[in-house]
Design goal:
about 400 residues, alpha/beta, about 20% helix, signal, protease, Sedolisin_dom, Peptidase S53 domain-containing protein, Peptidase_S8/S53_dom_sf
Amino acid sequence: MRRRVTGTILGGLILALVPFLSTAATAAPQAAPAAASHPFHHSCATSKAGRASCTALVRNDIADSAHTLRAEANAPSGLSPANLQSAYKLPSSTAGSGQTVAIVDAYNAPNAEADLGVFRSQYGLSACTTANGCFKKVDQNGGTSYPKTDAGWAQEISLDVDMVSAVCPNCKIVLVEAKTNNFSDLGAAVNTAAGLANVISNSYGGSDASDSTYGAFYNHPGKAITVSTGDAGYGVEYPASSRYVTAVGGTSLRSSTSTRGWTETAWSGAGSGCSQYNTALSGQSGLTGCSRRAVADVSAVADPATGVAVYDSTSYQGQSGWLVFGGTSVSAPVVAGVYGLAANAASVTNNYPYAHTGSLFDVTSGSNGTCTTAKWCKAGTGWDGPTGLGTPNGVGAF
């Protein structure tokens, strides 16, 4: 379960299936196996008062077979950029030029640029470096006084930059590193990101809170801001519950013989529900059953059993290299990348998807817990809490 600590931040990240695979692999990417359950341990838990942690969960049943996996695997496990582009019908090869997506996370990932290079090379994506102007890393004030390294958050950062790359390889990327995982520092990083990017991705969350307290950090007209809804199932977190952001829930994504080629259900860990504090979006009127802001708006893959391939070299608890991630820390940067492809951030608001549901795949099965109003925790036709209006079907809803 996620700890909920008022005034602090939790990451929206789950890490699963950790094969130490060769980075020289060149065969076609393979989807993660759809395992039902596995033993996990927390990637970056903390017991310090006034702090919280990202919710990275690491598979415990992989390390013993690492040598075998390294010798036999032809490509990283997990969904590849080509898989995501196919599942969501994205114009990734032709769109996104001139757009910049900012990633806001806590602490420093010292190898972020180099790790991104490994990921992009593996999948045949063009280089994205400081030298060619595609990648930039700054501290929360826009400078280069980077915070201390935290290996758990470094994994989060690798996930975020890799997912933006996977969906929008032509987008530029700005990584903004907050000094700590407190609201004030992360908020300062968001303010800095708003001056550097068209789109801002946030893969963290804490207890539901009021926009009257923290909303100034996320109120940036003309910028598309995505936030993960959380990984503990039914329940609302902030800043996903802010009226100024796009709250991104989670699904299980598997290949199928359908016309689409993929099938999705609500992921049991995705956060959802009604905010106690914040005003509903105008597009939600008469739709959600909530008197205030409802979560989520849209969604994308988040289930670690159908997770995505990521490369991270900052060793944490003996694990590094090619990893498979889940959590709404996947879905938030995926949707941020879709906003980058759409290139409409300057002229649309977070109500836009509500008027363009024909460009979304409606997710109609699965649930994330028990609730008094079924649509808050169970997927169904139209809007529901775990998956919102659905997942991208091209860029028309963004």
